[in-house]
Fold this protein.
Amino acid sequence: MKVRSTVFCFLLAQGIFAQTAFEKEVAAFRAEQHEDFFGKESRFNAKEKKILKKVTYFPADEQFRFKVTFRELPQKDTVIFATSTARMAPYLKYALLHFQYGSVACSLYVYQSVDLMKQEAYKNYLFLPFRDLTNGSTTYGGGRYIDFSIPADPQNVYLDFNRSYHPYCAYSDRFSCPVVPPENVLPIAINAGVKMPGGVKRSH
């Protein structure tokens, strides 16, 4: 009952009950993420949660939700990601996404974790790390992530930057997070998704 009340209060604070369908969808996603950060399964300690309480978001903006061309790579090479610690993380380069932002043609790779794909719950999970022109100012210097899935219909795939979030290492050095590769740096500002808490400008 306490968890439901917490989520309800968060939804109320986001103004979900007076929003469009798209805005409600984004607010519901943020409420779920809020529960991950503060609920009983949270991996953050009390000190780290004080930073998290200052987290804000860009307003939900449908112009940052793109229908993308999803091109699965015929050969999925293994790439080793550096992380915010000494750990190295193996991923498969799974697919390339193409989308258009105004006059700018953009592309991003999505990856599949070699370790997670062995688990039934994550066999369809794909990982999309990216950087953009907001990093180091309004968002974390090390970039942001988006969770993705192997699509059932590759011809009907959407990429919603309103669902972008900071890696755990943006809030604490206790965590080990993959570093965004140079190939996933966008030449545009993604003013959507999570913002960095004021005064905290961490980077890998």
In short: The chain is about 20% helix and 25% strand.
